[in-house]
Design goal:
Layout: E1 2-7, E2 11-16, H1 20-28, E3 34-39, E4 50-53, H2 62-75, E5 82-87, H3 89-101, E6 107-112, H4 115-121, E7 126-131, E8 134-141, E9 146-149, H5 159-175, H6 178-184, H7 189-194, H8 196-216, H9 222-225, H10 231-240, H11 247-266, H12 270-282, H13 294-301, E10 313-319, E11 322-327, H14 331-339
Parallel strand pairs: 2-9, 3-4, 3-5, 5-6, 6-9
Antiparallel strand pairs: 1-2, 7-8, 10-11
Length: about 350
Amino acid sequence: MRTVPVKAERAYQVEIGVDWKVALADWVEGRNKVVVITSSAFPVKTEFPTIEVPDGEAGKSPEVITKIWSQLGELGLNRNDLIIGIGGGTITDLAGFAAASWLRGIDWIAIPTTVAGMVDAAVGGKTGINSDHGKNLIGSFHSPVSVLIDLEWIKTLSERDVAAGMAEVVKCGFISDQEILTLLNNKSLKDVCHDVDLQLELIHRAVSVKASVVGEDFKESFLREILNYGHTLGHAIEKHSKYQIRHGEAVAIGMCFIAELAGSKIGLAKDVIDQHYAILKSLKLPVSYEKGAWPELLTTMGLDKKAKSGALRFVAIEEIGKCTRIEAPTSDELLNAYERITQ
């Protein structure tokens, strides 16, 4: 087991490699009421009342959160009670937002069951739901009191699920910890799926990157924005695909796009650009998208939270581990970079 401390609006621990049921016991002792929020496609049996929500991004809607509030009211949760989110990143986003918005904030625990949830969504205190206008536009910063990562969950995942989560691990390698990229060099997706020691090392390193960033910048000025590497185009692709493309898959495409833009705009070395493609392809992640989608993607990116005064801003890297911004690129620069990743 490994533990990563996180300092945000409260201090908490991310426990990696635990048995979640054993670790959870200490947190529920003495609570008046405990409620589990999980996916209807992945129901978890516990002794506590359970709220099941639609699977995937469909669960992160205003209609779903309204129903959750109604159920929390019926159950009579008070300020000393606890919400537990058991599931992937969409569940921890949703459970965290339910906890943040109920009685102006009650305790919650994240038990992520996907790689993406383990290394990204469950850590850092960002909670939220989607709007018709875009992903995660409604939300709050509200940290869990604990994150319990049980690597046994990875055995339940498809290769596609593991790959989607690994995109966030790769992101941490490019923005901060080059050792992640070294560990993945010449590794296939099957290697990652079957090597528990490698899983532990990669997840520990990725969580450590996020914990370090969050500890310095909880409310997202530029430092925390580096965690959105590849996400500006990625979120737009998710929306364009009506969420048929998973978050990590979209982020993988987004990282290739921003690497190409950084190559032409700020001189990112070609070998680093090529490394993006090589690692992501080895993990069976997509690195291209349809050419005709560009006008709609450009419009959606204009709604991105990082856009300022209508001008697009992107997190980029000058070299591995050294982040910067690309601000207000021209339409030609954007289109040229996008055309290099089109199918």
